[in-house]
Sequence to fold (407 residues):
Amino acid sequence: MSGGDVGSAGAGPSRGAGLVRWFEAGRAEALALLGRLVDQDSPTADKTAVDRLGAMIAAELEAAGARVTWERHATAGNVLRAAFGPPEADGGAAAGNAAAWGGAAMLLGHLDTVWPPGEAARRPFRVERGLATGPGVYDMKAGIVLMILLARATREGVVRPRRPVVCLLSADEETGSPASRAAIETEARRARYVLCLEPSNPDGGAKTARKGVGRIVLSVTGRAAHAGIDPAAGVNAIEELAAQILAVKALADESAGTTFHTGLVSGGVGKNVVPPSARCEIDVRVATPAGWERVAAAVRALTPRDARAGLAVEAVMSHPPLVRTERTSSLLEQARAAAAEAGFALGEGSTGGGSDGSYCAGVGAAVLDGLGVEGEGAHAIAEQVRVDRIAPRAAFLARVLETVDGP
Fold:
């Protein structure tokens, strides 16, 4: 890749414009790389496929001078860690050296997609009318390409990161990162700040807040009886469950950002039998930790409407909220200056969905999320990425790495 003079590291707008030109000169190569990644299936549940994609990405990062290590798992995909820039970013025994720097700049992403095996063959990577399409192109293989481009630019001396840079790619983000979470949190605790290269907001803005994600499971035990001959002898578990669902829904607080969605319901054994059991799973979204504490306490205090019924309640938060803080604001303002140098204004917004960035925020890291390439259609057939935005986003991130010391 060669785009000519990119200006000095402290040259402001001219430096940013030079970086955009440099990355734009490598557009064809970047798109070819993106195509190779998209055309490799990586559904979360297929360890072999996810690990195959991870090996492809590791090879690209190693060729770009990054130092790659793995956290291996028996059933889930392996977690990929790659470090570039100052050598103190190396892992293992050198992790303490990174801490001596006050922490690395962490680039966060994930290898897995929601698409099943064979989807890449059914809908291979394509570029038409300036849009790249294919399964996982937006969520979030374009973000992975940005990581590789930054490593290449650092190897070639075009980008000079101010801090060590650590890329961490989980392998099970689409199912809540049960296997990868510990590695994510460990790395986030060491980091000076975290940039999550998940898809951006629709306007290209960063995500400075995410709702926390929780799950409520209600299990009701009733008593079976013949619905026509002796219904009074029975205890209708489905009707009890319906009453409990409405009690949970009454806890919603739209003004505070607390919402509920009953997504799964099961119960009963036959139309003419009073149902002896019923169960449901309810999705919960909260804007703050206090919002979850209120909900969890309330649902755990629920009692059966029919005293003859049994009620078991499970309330678990899978993703903590990513709350906008003063440190978030400081990081955002510095990132906005870097974006301006790359020729665009960086907005901000919030979302109801969780991400691995939520785990980083949960352990106290300063996080900017949604910094991937602009596009639309995450988890949809219409998933797409704007190819003209790859270079500006790469240049923007390069300037963040060069200029931002931390919040």
